[in-house]
């Protein structure tokens, strides 16, 4: 069984993440969505909220593609998380050259820690390349409409958190 791990903070889950999840689901028999706890980033949504959002959105992919998708919170090294879930592949999404430079360093370090775990890069779909969780949060905080960047339930959660569109307080 080929197990893939797609890690991230997913704060919040975006349509860019969903694109990578959907495409990665076709490459593996089981996909683990690793939700990084990463207290240093000070997430907008709690770990429990992020896990629930991912589980809600990924349930239909799981049934549609006939693949098991599991959400797994982690706070340890990515390579240790991959070992914990039995992943032989780490899946990373790339949007731009800046992403590649960071990811290139990460791959080198991870290969030094465990050369049996491969990293696979999936380029973001062209219309999703500008979508970044950090920017989505900023737009939502300032009262902008983020509906075209996030799943509907995530949009609702952002509106609940920040107030309705156009509220710039």
What keyword list fits this structure?
single chain, 169 residues, alpha/beta, Rossmann fold, five-stranded parallel β-sheet, 5 strands, 44% helix
Describe what you observe in this structure.
The chain has 169 residues and is an alpha/beta fold. The chain has a single domain (3-127), classed as HUPs (Rossmann fold). It has helices at residues 15-25, 47-65, 78-85, 97-113, 133-141, 152-162, and strands spanning 3-8, 30-36, 68-74, 89-94, 118-123. A five-stranded parallel sheet has the order 3-2-1-4-5, sandwiched between helices. Helix 1 links the parallel strand 1 (3-8) and strand 2 (30-36). Helix 1 (15-25) packs across helix 2 (47-65). The longest helix has 19 residues, at 47-65.
Terminus-to-terminus distance: 51 Å
Do you know the CATH topology? Rossmann fold
Order of helices and strands: EHEHEHEHEHH
Average pLDDT figure = 91
Secondary structure blueprint with pairings:
Blueprint: E1 3-8, H1 15-25, E2 30-36, H2 47-65, E3 68-74, H3 78-85, E4 89-94, H4 97-113, E5 118-123, H5 133-141, H6 152-162
Parallel strand pairs: 1-2, 1-4, 2-3, 4-5
Short account of what is shown:
With 169 residues, this protein is α/β, with parallel strands linked by helices. It is 44% helix and 19% strand.
């Amino acid at each position: 069984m080929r197990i893939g791990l797609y890690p991230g903070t997913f704060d919040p889950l975006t349509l860019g993440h969903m694109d990578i999840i959907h495409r990665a689901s076709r490459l593996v028999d089981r996909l683990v969505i690793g939700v990084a706890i990463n207290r240093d980033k000070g997430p907008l949504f709690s770990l429990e909220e992020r896990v629930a959002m991912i589980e809600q959105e990924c349930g239909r992919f799981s049934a549609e593609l006939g693949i098991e998708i599991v959400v797994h919170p982690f706070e340890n090294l990515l390579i240790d998380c991959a070992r914990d879930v039995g992943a032989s592949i780490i899946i990373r999404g790339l949007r731009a050259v800046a992403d590649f430079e960071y990811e290139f360093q990460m791959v080198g370090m991870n290969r030094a820690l465990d050369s049996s775990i491969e990293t696979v890069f999936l380029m973001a779909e062209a219309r999703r390349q500008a979508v970044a969780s950090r920017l989505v949060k900023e737009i939502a905080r300032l009262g902008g409409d983020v509906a075209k960047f996030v799943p509907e339930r995530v949009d609702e959660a952002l509106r609940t958190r920040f107030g309705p569109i156009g509220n710039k307080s």
